[in-house]
Amino acid sequence: MNASRREFVVGAAAVGASALMSGCGLAKKAHPAEYTTKTAVYYTQGGDSWDYGNQQKEFDANTDCYVRITSMVYAANITASKGDEIAVKYAFSGTDVADVVIADGPPMQIEQSEDEENVIVYTYTAKAKDKDDDTEDYSIFKYIPAQDGSVTLSIEYGDEIDENEDWQSTIYFTGTAQRETTEVPNIKPSTE
After folding, report:
1. Which of 11, 92, 131, 137 sits in a 20 to 30 Å window from 104, CA-based?
2. 170 lies in a domain?
3. Residue 181, in any domain of the structure
4. Per DSSP, which regions of the chain are E strands?
5. In this predicted structure, what is the pLDDT of residue 55?
6. Do 54 and 146 belong together in one domain?
7. Is residue 192 part of a domain?
8. Cα-Cα-Cα-Cα dihedral of 48, 150, 56, 105, to 10°?
């Protein structure tokens, strides 16, 4: 093979490889990252077990209640990667019925809703996992009821996730809240 033909073959191979690689990049851009989620909501009120969110809906308005939220994000296609960051928002409406405070979980931003009264919003950044990773990501919130009524938890994932993956759960506090405030007695130190 003469030198000019060899240069042509090498040049053509380089152009072909470049086109193939840029084609892969185009294919990657044409198919946006896809994610799936696993969401579960459990409640407890002084017991040793957590009840699945769609089972028990009424709780005593005189006793604190806890909600355990599992919300995990999984990379679902080749353009989604383990470690991709996805915003997760927990919005609690009905905070006039029960105060909501975080008891356990990842660091979160806390804000009052500017659009609605009696809504508190907690947000954090979830990291996408491989589909085989079953390590749970969860948060626990404490409801401190002040009166009868309902509290609705709405879980919303970032724009990267189909809105059908969002979740909502409402519970009801009943029994006319009669919370007692206990006064701490003024105990003086012993002088003996």
Report:
1. 131
2. yes
3. no
4. 35-44, 51-52, 58-60, 65-75, 85-93, 98-104, 109-112, 119-127, 138-145, 149-157, 167-174
5. 75
6. yes
7. no
8. -40
